[in-house]
Each structure stands twice: as structure tokens, then as C-alpha cells.
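Example S7 (C-alpha cells).
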């Protein structure tokens, strides 16, 4: 196949969707010099540039990422985009990043309308982020599930086991999952995950609520006035899990200021094996909100939940355990 034919074929197939790569002809031409063994790869996906079809041309490199899952981990080939002060030569080609399964401590998939990002967090706190069009989420879900399966083979850590036991106890005393009309999408997202992972059980959940700033005096009056104009909302979330991982389905951010509707969805996956410690403290800025910090490997993940909620009690129940260093 000539370069012109390859480019035209790539151009003809281009759209906002994320396609699986099954044959050498499916590989975007930018990445064809990379040694890729399609016979041994578990899954290979190509992620298109975030441009309208009408703005694409046959001579463009039309794919921002090639994501390769094999028996070792995720390899991401990412098109160089350059920036201010970047020479044309430095902006050419692609970068290669590898995230071995043994180093993955969290997966975060966030979709806000058509703007979406998958982030892989590793033990040293570094992240591998892949932006994509939210309309193509189905194949990203599949990618997350594949990475989840590969990173949750180890037994839960002592803290992970305590969290699992507390979650099972909470689930046994919970009613049917419901969050009200404003958060039906969250419930639907949980059900979608459970269709693929039937052992996943919702442990506890809470709906959205208006929250108010901390502090008194003149500064507190000013903060209260600003929040009257632009209120703060602590958004709904569902904490769930199975024998292998903690999953949290929520919005793109725990706390959001303003009155505009929020339509985002997020899915956070944390293997129970990597949870070394849990700490819970009062939120520094808002009343009736607590921050639970999960210590995973060499980094941390913060969750904001309502004070006194089921999530607060579940997380606080394991928060006083002594930290357990993660071994590799």
C-alpha cells in the first residue's frame, strides 16, 4: 500500500469513534514504524484527533494515540502536538509511554458531554492521560475493564480487606440504589458497569447537596455572600466494590461552584491490593464535608463525602488502621 493510499484510506475511515486495530492496515501511518505484535496483543485501540470531520485532510496524521495492551501493561503511542516555541521538527513524530500493570494504582475515566479523559495513575504519582471524544466511551470502558482485570490479581492488602469487609456489611444493610431525578445518570452508569462485572456490589451512596463555607467573622461573611451568588454543591457518588477493587461512580469533581447543570460522569477504579492506608479529616473549606484520602503506593487519592454519610462511616471505619507499606 502506498503512502497516498494509506493516507486516503485512513482519511476515509476517520471519525470521532475509537476503533480496534486488528490488522497492520488498521494501524495509523504515524505509528507504523513501532514494533507492534498484533497476534500477542490483548487489545489495540486508535484514538482520533479531536477535530471535526470537515476539518480533516488526507495528508494529516489523524490519530492522537495508539493504545496497546499486552501481557506486561499498557503502551501509549501519542502524537506530538508541539506548542509555543516548539520547532516543527520537535513537533513531529510520537512519544512512547509504558505503564506496567504492576505499577497501576488507579484508573479514572471522566466524561463531560463530548469531552472525555482516561487517566492511568501509577505508584510514583505520575499519570498517563488520554483525551477522547465522549461519544466513543464504549471501547474505553472495554479498555478499563481489561486493565482492571490485569491489575487486580493480587489479594487485597490488610486495609483493602478491611474496606471490603466494611463495604459488604454496608451493602447488607442498604436499600435499593436510588439517587433522585438529578442523578439518574449515575445509577445508570453503575448498572452499566455491573452488566460487565456482575460481582460488583454497590456498598453505599449519597445524593447531591448544597454545602456552605467554613469560618466566621468578616471573612466568613464575605465567603457566605459569594456562595449565595455562586453556591457550592457536593455531588452524588456511589461507592461499590468486589473482591478485587473499589469503584466509585461520581461526577467530574466532588465539589462544584455555580448554578449551571452538571452532566459529567466519572468512574474511578482502585485495586484493593494497592490501598495501604485511609485517612479521614474535615474539609478545610466547607462545613459538613469530610475528605477521605486513600494512600496507594507512593501517591494519594482524595474523596470528598458528606459528614455523617454512609460513605463517611465506611471509610472512617478503616481509617485508624496502621499504615501498611506496599511491597512490590
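Recovered sequence:
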Amino acid at each position: 500500500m502506498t503512502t497516498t493510499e494509506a493516507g486516503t484510506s485512513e482519511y476515509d475511515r476517520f471519525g470521532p469513534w475509537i476503533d480496534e486495530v486488528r490488522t497492520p492496515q488498521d494501524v495509523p501511518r504515524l505509528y507504523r514504524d513501532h514494533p507492534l505484535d498484533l497476534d500477542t496483543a490483548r487489545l489495540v485501540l486508535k484514538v482520533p484527533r479531536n477535530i471535526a470531520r470537515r476539518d480533516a485532510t488526507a495528508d494529516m496524521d489523524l490519530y492522537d494515540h495508539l493504545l496497546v495492551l499486552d501481557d506486561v501493561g499498557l503502551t501509549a503511542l501519542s502524537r506530538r502536538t508541539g506548542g509555543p516555541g516548539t520547532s516543527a521538527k520537535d513537533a513531529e513524530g510520537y512519544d512512547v509511554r509504558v505503564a506496567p500493570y504492576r505499577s497501576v494504582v488507579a484508573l479514572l475515566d471522566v466524561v463531560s458531554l463530548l469531552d472525555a479523559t482516561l487517566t492511568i495513575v501509577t505508584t510514583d504519582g505520575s499519570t498517563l492521560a488520554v483525551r477522547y471524544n465522549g461519544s466513543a466511551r464504549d471501547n474505553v470502558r472495554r479498555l478499563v475493564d481489561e486493565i482492571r482485570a490485569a491489575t487486580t490479581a493480587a489479594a487485597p492488602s490488610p486495609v483493602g480487606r478491611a474496606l471490603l469487609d466494611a463495604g459488604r456489611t454496608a451493602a447488607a444493610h442498604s436499600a435499593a440504589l436510588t439517587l433522585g431525578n438529578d442523578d439518574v445518570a449515575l445509577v445508570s452508569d453503575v448498572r452499566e458497569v455491573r452488566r460487565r462485572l456482575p460481582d460488583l456490589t454497590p456498598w453505599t451512596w449519597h445524593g447531591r447537596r448544597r454545602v456552605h463555607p467554613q469560618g466566621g467573622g468578616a471573612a466568613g461573611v464575605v465567603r457566605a455572600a459569594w456562595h449565595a451568588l455562586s453556591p457550592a454543591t457536593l455531588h452524588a457518588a456511589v461507592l461499590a466494590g468486589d473482591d478485587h477493587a473499589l469503584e466509585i461512580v461520581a461526577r467530574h469533581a466532588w465539589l462544584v461552584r455555580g448554578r449551571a447543570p452538571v452532566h459529567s460522569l466519572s468512574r474511578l477504579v482502585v485495586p484493593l491490593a494497592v490501598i495501604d492506608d485511609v485517612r479521614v479529616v474535615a474539609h478545610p473549606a466547607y462545613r459538613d464535608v469530610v475528605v477521605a484520602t486513600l494512600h496507594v503506593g507512593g501517591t494519594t487519592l482524595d474523596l470528598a463525602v458528606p459528614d455523617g454519610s454512609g460513605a463517611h462511616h465506611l471509610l472512617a471505619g478503616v481509617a485508624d488502621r496502621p499504615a501498611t507499606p506496599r511491597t512490590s
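Notes on this example. The longest strand covers residues 104-112.
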